[in-house]
């Protein structure tokens, strides 16, 4: 064990725990991959283990991986994709890297380890290629269109029709028809373009994103008798979808979260507000009562 101050040792213990945990995460994810990605993840896992052993020489203790963190990131990789899980983990590591400056003078190896960590990020950015990311624009098309179009339609139906069950029926018919239309449009659009994306797959991704959004937005009208209570929950669900998807995009594309979230939120709620007013005026002037 090499001599360091207690303050430096506490920082190194944090580094050591992070490195040995990431060794376990990369090792677990390597088992789920094939080809060059597997080799890359295994190499990074060994580098992380070696980094942990360097810190151990200064801390004098052997640490075990954070098992809950390993399970969390493996589950995230299974559900959200490996790119999302790794980029989210690397963002946490970026925050830890700010402490490297505090130990560079006391620990000669710190600069070399920081350089290798930066190389890892570059290698991962160049090599990871997931199908869901290649078709991300198709998913965005379906989700954005469903949010803007269906929140607006449901808001208009709420005041025009006045019955939760009737709004649910009208919203479901509108949503399913629009999902099929969007899928067909995406298929034709991709077929007319030259690229590595398959038109049918692009159409399926668009349709699934649209239909998934339809289910989340229409569901409140199936459980609430009051259409206005259902509309409130629908709008809340819409905000949740926007929040979730914007966060996902900000991680995998290293994009600013706040600007994208506020832009998408203002468009969806703005259209909903205008549609609600149209529904009110339609009911007022046409005299329709259900």
UniProtKB/TrEMBL annotation:
Annotated keywords: Membrane, Transmembrane, Transmembrane helix
GO BP terms: intracellular manganese ion homeostasis
GO cellular component, one term: endomembrane system
Domain Rubrerythrin diiron-binding: 17-131
Membrane-protein topology: Multi-pass membrane protein
InterPro entries: Ccc1_fam (IPR008217), Ferritin-like (IPR012347), Ferritin-like_SF (IPR009078), Ferritin_CCC1_N (IPR039376), Rr_diiron-bd_dom (IPR003251)
Predominant location: membrane
Gene Ontology molecular-function annotations: manganese ion transmembrane transporter activity; metal ion binding; oxidoreductase activity
Transmembrane residue ranges: 70-89, 140-161, 167-188, 200-222, 228-252, 264-286
Localization: Endomembrane system
Protein name per UniProt: VIT1/CCC1 family predicted Fe2+/Mn2+ transporter
Lineage, broadest ranks: Bacteria, Thermotogati, Synergistota, Synergistia, Synergistales
């Amino acid at each position: 064990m090499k001599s360091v101050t207690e303050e430096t040792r506490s920082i190194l213990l944090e580094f050591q725990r992070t490195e040995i945990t990431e060794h376990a995460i990369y090792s677990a994810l390597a088992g789920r991959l094939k080809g060059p990605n597997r080799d890359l993840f295994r190499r990074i896992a060994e580098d992380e283990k070696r980094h942990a052993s360097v810190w151990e020489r200064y801390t004098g203790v052997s640490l075990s991986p954070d098992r809950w963190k390993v399970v969390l990131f493996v589950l995230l990789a299974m559900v959200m994709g490996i790119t999302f899980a790794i980029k989210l983990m690397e963002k946490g590591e970026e925050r830890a890297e700010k402490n490297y400056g505090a130990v560079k003078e006391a620990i000669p190896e710190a600069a070399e380890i920081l350089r290798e960590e930066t190389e890892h990020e570059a290698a991962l950015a160049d090599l990871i290629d997931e199908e869901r990311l290649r078709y991300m624009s198709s998913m965005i098309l379906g989700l954005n269109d469903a949010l803007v179009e269906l929140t607006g339609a449901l808001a208009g139906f709420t005041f025009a029709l006045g019955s939760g069950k009737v709004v649910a029926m009208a919203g479901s018919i509108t949503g399913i028809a629009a999902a099929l239309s969007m899928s067909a449009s995406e298929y034709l659009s991709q077929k007319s373009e030259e690229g590595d994306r398959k038109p049918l797959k692009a159409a399926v991704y668009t349709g699934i994103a649209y239909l998934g959004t339809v289910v989340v937005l229409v569901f409140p009208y199936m459980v609430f008798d009051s259409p206005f209570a259902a509309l409130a929950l629908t709008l809340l669900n819409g905000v949740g979808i926007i929040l979730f998807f914007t966060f996902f995009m900000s991680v995998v594309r290293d994009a600013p979260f706040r600007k994208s979230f506020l832009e998408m939120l203002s468009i969806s709620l703005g259209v909903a507000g205008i549609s609600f007013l149209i529904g009110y005026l339609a009911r007022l002037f046409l005299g329709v009562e259900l």
